[in-house]
Amino acid sequence: MIIFEANISISLIDFFKTNLEKINTIEQANELLKEICGINFFFNNEEEFTKLKSKIEENTQAFEEPNRRAYGDFQTNEDLADSVAKYLCKGGVKPELVIEPTCGKGRFILAVLKEFKAIKKIVGIEIYYPYVWETKFGILDLFLSEKHSCKPEINIIHADIFNFNLKDLAAENKDSNTLVIGNPPWVTNSELSTLNSNNLPQKSNFKSHKGIDAITGKGNFDIGEYISLQILRNFDKCKGIFAFLVKNSVVKNILHNQWQSKHQIGNIRKLNIDAKKEFNVSVDACLFLSNFNLTPEYICQEIDFYTQEEITEFGWHKDKFVYSISDYNKAENLDGKSPFVWRQGMKHDCSKIMELDRFNGHFINGFKQEVSPEKNLLYGLLKSSDLKDEVIDSYRKTTIVTQKKVGQDTSYIKKEYPQTYNYLDSNRAYFDRRKSSIYRGKPPFSIFGIGDYSFAKYKVAISGMYKRTTFSLVLPENDKPLMLDDTCYFIGFETIEEAQIAQKILNSNIVQAFLKAIIFFDAKRPITKDILMRIDMEKAYNLLGLETKTAENSDWKLFGNKFEIKEESTSQMSLF
């Protein structure tokens, strides 16, 4: 049966029929229910009390619950919630106060009520009204079905966590042994904006990103991360423990931020769960644990939740952020600054218009329309999925390159390439619908991530999206360079010999070992510019040069003697 769009059990229906029949006021009802299960203000107003009584009599039929997964709403199943509570109990956690900031259907509240016997107070906060009632019904059902020696004061609050006063809640309970537990939304702010959701924090650059980082990818953040940081900022000086189910990327970002924020947390652990099994979703997720009110720590143990097997230890080590401290200790001498500037490929956010397939000498756009642009502005295009081989000399798609540098005036296209202009102009509406602010105020048909470096004949490139660190040598077609999209990173050269040497360095065992130590392969984009800029290729060059004394037939020997380290010049090839 459904009441307030929330599921209610048959046993509760019978309970309400029996008990509310003799009760006429909301005050009497709330007093009875608090005595049974500890919930303050089970009914918040007369309307709720009257509506429940009438619905019980109507015997309302069930309805289909809305799918809230689009909002990052992955409700914790009972078994997982119980397992987490048991794990905490086994670890010596004895909370007096339990807070669940986004309590959903109340699975964690029910789990801690079953497991911990010294709880004095529980606070659950939930924005979705039907879940508030589902939580209340679940708690009442639990107390009616089982005898509990522990009956804490319980407040289930219908509120938006983004506007809730966590600071006062922390201050009021500073001396209580606190467990902040939960499963916040697994969705980013931009995804919620796309869904036109109102469940968003106030717009702010809360990580203090600068310049272009603030308006592109780094300005996007996970809602679970935002909520986690609010908890840490308000409760890190309280006694107790923090336990959240979050995506792995959230833990990585929080720990990375810890170097600057210095939250008073320690004993930091990341217990990996099988999200496919627990939530039927393909994402890497974990139980994130840390203790409050400790000297700030910067290292996290990564453990398998089910087997308790330790996987790695990651975090800040020797002033560097690394994935595996043990592996890093073996390869740390390569951690420095790249003598090259790694570049991201071009970005246009208009693939159906800008990217063309070749078919029998014709060009077909994303709408399966044949188009005939002049070939001067057409370049071969490689995406992440194309960077599979060590040498790339072919491509699937072409792209129209409208500019040679960001912000360049594009009016020349109309005069010099009228067919291309007519095609772009006829599809101007698609360009105007691009949402990114980087195109605002720019010339028509603007692209981004373009510069002199884009037109280097030879490139050494890698995908940012895949869990492999093989670097590909990208060759030109008839002396015309190939372009890469913004999921790829590259460095460019004017001679094939220079590019081959750079590729040999990057694919060498010592560089690959270093990358293994610092890359978080469970990230959505494991390889980033920040990662690549840490590779000190000059040190790798010298180390590989020393290896040739004992490795007479090494691949490096074929190239290493052709060049010497030179003083930095104005060209990209400052290393050679």
Written overview of the protein:
The chain is 33% helix and 19% strand. With 576 residues, the protein is of the alpha/beta class. It folds into 3 domains: 2-58, no CATH class; 69-317, Vaccinia Virus protein VP39 (Rossmann fold, 3-Layer(aba) Sandwich); 343-560, no CATH class.
What is the name of the CATH superfamily of the largest domain? Vaccinia Virus protein VP39
Strand order of the largest sheet: 5-4-3-6-7-9-8-10-11-12
Largest sheet: 10 strands, mixed
Integer average pLDDT = 88
What integer value in Å does the Rg equal? 29 Å
CATH architecture heading of the largest domain: 3-Layer(aba) Sandwich
- CATH class placement of the largest domain: Alpha Beta
The number of helical runs is 21
Q: What is the distance, rounded to the nearest whole angstrom, between the alpha carbons of the first and last residues? A: 74 Å
The quaternary organization reads as single chain
Task: List unreliable stretches of 5+ residues.
Answer: 192-197, 211-217, 546-576
- Can you tell me the overall shape? globular
Fold-level CATH name of the largest domain: Rossmann fold
Give the beta-strand count.
23
Tell me the fraction of residues in β-strands, as a range: 15-25%
As a percent range, the share of helical residues equals: 25-40%
Structural class of the helix and strand makeup?
Answer: alpha/beta
Tell me the count of domains. 3
In summary, what is this structure?
Helices cover about 35% and strands about 20% of the residues. It has about 575 residues and is of the alpha/beta class.
